[in-house]
User: Which sequence fits this backbone?
């Protein structure tokens, strides 16, 4: 993917984040994630029904990469089964850490395929994905 297109997608998701804003609903799983090395702090909410991710919400104070990554993550995972989401998540984490991954399953999230070249920005991009991983692990543990 062309670097200008990547920048455009990231900027659009930062300026117009999808699924941003928390709601009061006890049926959502929730977590708080923060990046100790910068300002990024996100609250993430996930709703699962019949093994399908029905909704993801997030909000918080964070940089452009963190907000855009959270927005793209929500768009990528909503409507997927937990198993599909775990596969996408693993491929995203592999991509971000320069391991083998399937770019086809990542959809728009592939815009971060070069984040490993700037290690100080990896946590910004990964924060929301780690939050979803944390929630999915909690769901599996129940």
Assistant:
């Amino acid at each position: 993917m062309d670097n200008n297109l990547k920048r455009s997608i990231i900027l659009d998701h930062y300026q117009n984040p999808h699924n941003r804003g928390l709601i009061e609903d006890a049926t959502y799983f929730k977590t708080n994630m923060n990046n100790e090395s910068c300002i990024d702090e996100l609250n993430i909410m996930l709703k699962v029904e019949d093994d399908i991710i029905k909704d993801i919400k997030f909000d918080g104070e964070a940089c452009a990469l963190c907000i855009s990554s959270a927005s793209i993550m929500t768009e990528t995972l909503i409507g997927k089964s937990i198993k599909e989401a775990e596969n996408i998540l693993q491929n995203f984490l592999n991509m971000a850490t320069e391991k083998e991954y399937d770019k086809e399953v990542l959809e728009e999230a592939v815009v971060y395929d070069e984040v490993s070249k700037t290690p100080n920005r990896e946590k910004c991009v990964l924060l929301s994905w780690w939050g979803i991983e944390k929630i999915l692990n909690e769901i599996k543990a129940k």
Remarks:
- The longest helix spans residues 119-141.
- The first strand starts at residue 29 and ends at 34.
- The chain has one domain: 3-141.
